[in-house]
Amino acid sequence: MLALAACAGAPGPVRTMQDVLGDDHGPGTYLPPTGEPYSRGGFDLKALTLAVVGDDLVITAELARPVPIARSVRTTTEGAMDLFLPTVDVYLDLDLVAGSGEREGLVGRRVRLADEAGWEVALVLSPAPGLARRVLGAGRSDVVVAEGARARGATLSGRVPASVLRGRGLEQVGVAAAVTATVVSSTFRDLVPGAAATGLAREITAEPGQCGAWEELPDGTPCTFGGCAPCGEHPRVLDALHPQPGEQEQRLGRYVRGEVAELPIVLPPARAEVGLSRPKAPAVDRAEVVDRKGALVTARGEPARMAGLREGQLLDGLNAAGEVVATLMVLSSGPEGLAVLRVVSGGGAASGTAIVHVALP
Q1: CA 246 to CA 223: how far, in whole Å?
Q2: Which parts of 217-273 fold into alpha helices (H)?
Q3: CA within 20 to 30 Å of 226's CA: 9, 150, 312, 320, which one?
């Protein structure tokens, strides 16, 4: 929905996206650990709201139940504090172009965006923003951790600069969001070995763990969620944003088939029917296939135009009659007009030394 934000500061547009209730179970099988403060509903995303307020983009995640809090977590040798347990990642697809942007989720999540979507900016609501910035955003300008994120009742909120939208309106971007459970022990031991690999996301084990004192390993053991089957390449995401029942479970459950788990993406209403577009690229009139090994194709074309191709772009492969016989993805383009492509669907293109037309619809 689009409306005016009734918040402090200069009001701007607001976009609220609803999520299915009662689905903080990842692919459908995850269970919370025993003991306080873990229970059903504390990681269950109800709605996500993005609002432009002055120079800020305000992120508000509404949960089904009050935000679970870890009490008296020792963050230094002298003191302790309360920390909220969910971490919320928000991925913004600013150009709505399939094959463009970063597909892989933040480290430790073991997910990627669905439907060949890619994100240009990732926003993070974390109880330990300084540490999250070091673990998730080290050396990256496209990962922005909100300062001063806080829990109030059943909501988490934080602010980032509105410039992360790069001039796009809220109604023009695709949004994916994931809720993970934060490992809090590392907040008082600084960057303990192993914390970077998990991205501060609590592990999922075959059986739910049992919670006690906050003396846990970098993956949250023994206070882990349970229900991965099989365990190993399972996602560590407890809830994903999408209004359609079953979409989250289907996408995250891909790992059971040995595929990468996916986060569904919520497109703007005006784009929901047509989906993601294909990349715009310089036209390539024709390319002569000089080599093919399996799905890998090497083609040669006019150097200036071939050099304009970008990694990840999807192109149509046409036969001599102009019929579309395959879809190819650009892996690389180099000197002398050479490009390496991968056949992602079809198979009739680029056989032998035939001339293929490579063009965008």
Answers
A1: 27
A2: 247-252
A3: 150
HSE (side-chain half, CA atoms, 13 Å) at 64: 16
CA dist., res. 122 & res. 202, Å (int): 19
**Strand bridging mode 121-125 / 143-145:** parallel
Picking from 313, 298, 21, 5, the residue whose alpha carbon sits closest to that of residue 154 is 21
Instruction: Tell me the sheet residues that pair with 357.
Output: 318
Give CA separation, 322 vs 122, 356, 361, in Å. Answer: 40, 9, 12
- Segment (H or E) for 49: strand 45-53
- Distance between CA atoms of residues 219 and 69, nearest Å: 18
Q: Please tell me the pTM assigned to this model.
A: 0.75
> Tens digits of per-residue pLDDT, 264-297?
999 998 777 667 876 554 555 677 778 888 888 8
Instruction: In whole angstroms, give the CA distance from residue 71 to residue 103.
Output: 35
Cα distance between residue 183 and residue 218, in whole Å: 7
308: closest CA among 360, 253, 351, 243?
360
SS3 percent helix, strand, coil of the chain, rounded to 5, is 10, 40, 50
Q: Is the peptide bond between 66 and the residue preceding it cis, with omega within 30 degrees of 0? A: no
pLDDT tens track for 57-68: 999 999 999 999
CA distance 60 to 13: 14
